[in-house]
Amino acid sequence: MSVWLNRIATSVPRFEAHGKFLAYAPMMLADERDRRKFARLADKAQIERRYTIFEPAPEPERLDSGDFYVRGSFPPTSARMALFDEHALPLALEACREALAGSRGGDITHLIVTTCTGLSTPGLDLQLQQALGLRSSLERTVIGFMGCYAAINGLKAASHIVRSEPRAKVLLVNLELCTLHLQEDVDLEGLLGFMQFADGCAASVISAESEGLQLKRFHCDVLPEAAELITWQVGDRGFAMELSPSLPKVLGDNIADLMNWVDAPISLWAVHPGGRAILDAIQAGLSLPEDALAVSRAVLRDYGNMSSATVMFVLKAMLESAAPGAGLAMAFGPGLTLESMIFDKP
């Protein structure tokens, strides 16, 4: 039984705020040397645009026009979750309706949602079922709090479903509102959210119909000794991420061994763009050609890091324009976990 990723649609909020985030963040640092270092790091990040649910405020001292983020009183987790409930569904519907264009919603048999930036019930899965008019017998699965590699897990779950039920049509939704979790009481490293993270959504259809990318094989590896390099904790003031500066080196030093299960030539590399330094480390660790990660770098430049949705943006670009060939998608996150997938583009 062959499994195919037939279509991918994406959506982002209407507010572009990369420059605003970079201008606002240094004001939270007391030390002038830290402010200069932040500017240097931001300049090297190779990000030009990021999108957010927050409308940027025109005044330099304000971050957003609704004053959700106010210096000295960043909002509690409950307020952030309320905003997730308000904004997640419209953004997801935009991508889902494009992914389902020309087909009937009633044909969808399974729905998988991945997110690590919002928690509620009845949640996004039930909201999408109702808003899209999906069948009442729809089988729903929510993959939560797995971070950036959750999209590969979502594709893996969809592949298992289609292999066991050849008539299945799976709708996979990867929705992340990362800018809901900007932190205030942090050091220079803690301002990564202002420098890199963004909001976005991908919606995909997976089935046995031979159209799109053929999903061939999945693999997971964990480096437990590096588990603390990426953490994502629920706190009183949102979800707090800690991302160690040593992560790119650890990935670069281990990536060749982690990829030793791949036994065929790869021409398409769909690597989650977790940051410029991470892409550089993976490219060096695997001795890839200069342009091998061009699509991942373009997604990072144009959208930033949208957690689980990001690698789907990379796969969409390859689905639409890449030359035929064998591909490998990979994403990584807490654990330290690396999820990988081999695919073919006919």
Number of helices: 10
Number of beta strands:
13
Radius of gyration, in Å, reads 20 Å
Physical arrangement of strands within the biggest beta sheet: 5-4-6-7-1-8-13-12-11
State the distance separating the first and last CA atoms: 17 Å
Number of domains: 2
Main sheet makeup? 9 strands, mixed
Q: List the helices and strands in order.
A: EEHHEHEHEHEHEEEEHEHHHEE
CATH topology call of the largest domain = Peroxisomal Thiolase, Chain A, domain 1
Q: From the coordinates shown, what is the CATH architecture of the largest domain?
A: 3-Layer(aba) Sandwich
Outline, from the CA principal axes? globular
What fraction of residues sit in β-strands? 25-35%
Mean pLDDT: 96
Q: What is the structural class?
A: alpha+beta
Measured as a percent range, the helix fraction is 25-40%
CATH H level, superfamily name of the largest domain? Thiolase/Chalcone synthase
Q: Identify the CATH class of the largest domain.
A: Alpha Beta
> Regions with pLDDT < 50 over 5+ consecutive residues?
none
